[in-house]
Task: inverse folding
């Protein structure tokens, strides 16, 4: 069995994890201080968002220097100390590599601007069309055109993301070699995992054509050459070392491509992130909307990925939360009335699936969206752009704020709630983003003394380590049309695990499929006491339960 199948990975947002020096921004020393806490949880790898030198226009995903630590977070010596101290606790580090684009402050871009032809070919530069219009009609994912004038030349540079993030020209072998050098630099330092940002958009064609609207993403996403590049990246860097763990962030990808990226025979990546299941509360694809999540669609997407990746021997990264998503308990449950039940049901529903689970900081203690009252409390640029756009389109302030409160990326970026003291023990200074108002009820200190969510996460992590049916079993979805329950069976070596997850805050009765009836079952784990496997099951609000079928 591949070593990454029984691991659980913890995503830590360095800016918001723990501030050691009172400047209001989390740092490397803060992470070192909290390593024993992560060890207690039971995780064996930390994925950190980028800590490289950056103007921070896009939270560090705009990189000026791939091989230097931003003084905002600390020094190279502190990183080396973190790697060493984590290793002593059997915890490895996964770095976030942004290889599709650099900041326009990067030395390569600056040399290109000064007229250096070698470095001009590091980026995607194109002249205007004959009629003077932009090279193509593509849109940036952050809004507006995807082209910006390149200095005082006749050319434009492509930026699929922020205007300060210039896309790299992967067709140039020198660019690829430079990037492989970067990955090897961090391998030498002792980094044993890599998360590759927006990796499936690196394969742009030689000739770029206008989009017809609907097909725009397909012009630069999952193009066949991406797989060639990822194989080469593997061979030239992390593939040379045993025991590496890699994950690609794959926006708008398909199951077919997911298999190609992650089937071990192809020597590309260990696993991939896909995001379709986190768009089930978007109204016709519009994120900034206010509709209930579509539970049947959520199940259908999870089932399609589980079945497809299993059939093709691909591997999923499993997650509800990350630094770009609102908190899942606020989104898919009821953290006010049923905080423990919601948090544990959501955790169990993915931790017992086929794939590698990721825990995003704070979810293991039940942190929620902060519910800020003013737009000025939000820092995220995407949030402010969305608010302006909604107001311009006639959406009243109250309605716009309701949507912002539900969908803003800042929901997950609020400082980690360590204790009940001011600023939740995150900093002695003024935090860069306000702490959520419920920090006195929800914090690590309280959770470790008498909480129930953290111990539940510990149990789920232990079960994955102990039971091959969880870490490596086959998946079969059941009750796919049931309107309230997400249910599945995992199977390996004659061992069968039945998992039932109730996504609503009421009591609910339903019939189990015939083949499961009358089987002697052992209760493995659940968030309510006293439940037996019966023909007619009755689940309580946000109940989750797993049975071993004899």
Result:
């Amino acid at each position: 069995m591949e070593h990454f199948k029984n691991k659980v990975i913890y995503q830590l947002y360095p800016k918001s994890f723990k501030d050691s020096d009172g400047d209001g921004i989390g740092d490397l020393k803060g992470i070192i201080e909290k390593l024993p806490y992560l060890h207690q949880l039971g995780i064996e790898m930390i994925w950190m968002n980028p800590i490289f030198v950056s103007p921070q226009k896009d939270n560090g995903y705009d990189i000026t220097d791939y091989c230097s630590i931003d003084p905002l977070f600390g020094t190279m010596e502190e990183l080396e100390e973190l790697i060493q101290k984590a290793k002593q606790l059997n915890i490895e580090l996964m770095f976030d590599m942004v290889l599709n684009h650099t900041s326009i402050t990067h030395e390569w871009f600056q040399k290109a601007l000064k007229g250096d032809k070698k470095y001009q070919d590091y980026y995607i530069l194109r002249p205007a069309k004959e009629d003077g219009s932009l090279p193509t009609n593509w849109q940036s994912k952050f809004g507006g055109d995807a082209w910006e004038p390149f200095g005082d030349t006749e050319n434009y540079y492509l930026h699929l993301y922020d205007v300060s993030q210039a896309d790299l020209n992967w067709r140039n072998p020198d660019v690829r070699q430079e990037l492989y050098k970067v990955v090897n630099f961090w391998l030498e330092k002792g980094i044993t995992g890599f998360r590759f940002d927006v990796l499936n958009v690196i394969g742009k064609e030689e000739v770029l054509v206008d989009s017809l609207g609907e097909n725009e993403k397909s012009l630069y996403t999952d193009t066949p050459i991406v797989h060639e590049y990822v194989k080469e990246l593997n061979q030239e860097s992390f593939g040379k070392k045993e025991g590496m763990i890699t994950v690609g962030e794959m926006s708008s990808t398909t199951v077919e491509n997911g298999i190609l990226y992650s089937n071990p025979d192809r020597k590309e990546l260990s696993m991939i992130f896909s995001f379709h299941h986190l768009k089930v509360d978007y109204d016709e694809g519009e994120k900034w909307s206010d509709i209930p999540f579509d539970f049947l669609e959520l199940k259908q997407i999870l089932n399609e990925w589980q079945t497809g990746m299993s059939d093709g021997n691909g591997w999923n990264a499993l997650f509800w939360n990350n630094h770009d998503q609102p908190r899942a308990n606020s989104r898919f449950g009821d953290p006010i009335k049923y905080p423990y039940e919601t948090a544990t049901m959501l955790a169990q529903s993915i931790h017992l699936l086929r794939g590698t689970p990721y825990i995003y900081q704070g979810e293991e203690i039940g942190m929620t969206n902060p519910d800020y009252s003013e737009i000025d409390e939000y820092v995220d640029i995407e949030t402010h752009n969305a608010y302006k756009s909604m107001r311009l389109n006639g959406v009243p302030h109250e309605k716009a704020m309701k949507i912002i409160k539900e969908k803003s990326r800042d929901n997950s970026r609020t400082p980690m709630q360590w204790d009940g003291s001011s600023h939740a023990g995150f900093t002695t200074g003024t935090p860069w983003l306000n702490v959520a108002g419920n920090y006195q009820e929800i914090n690590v200190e309280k959770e470790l003394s008498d909480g129930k969510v953290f111990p539940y996460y510990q149990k789920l992590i232990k079960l994955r380590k102990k039971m091959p049916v969880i870490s490596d079993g086959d998946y079969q979805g059941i009750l796919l049309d049931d309107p309230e329950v997400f249910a599945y069976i995992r199977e390996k070596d004659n061992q069968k695990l039945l998992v039932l997850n109730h996504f609503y805050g009421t009591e609910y009765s339903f019939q189990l499929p015939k083949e499961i009836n009358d089987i002697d079952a052992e209760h493995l784990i659940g968030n309510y006491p006293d439940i037996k496997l019966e023909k007619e099951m009755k689940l309580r609000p946000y109940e989750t339960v797993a049975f071993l079928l004899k």
Notes: Residues 132 and 344 are 57 Å apart (CA to CA). The chain has a mean pLDDT of 96. Residues 473-549 form a domain with the Immunoglobulin-like fold (CATH 2.60.40.1180). The longest helix spans residues 173-189.
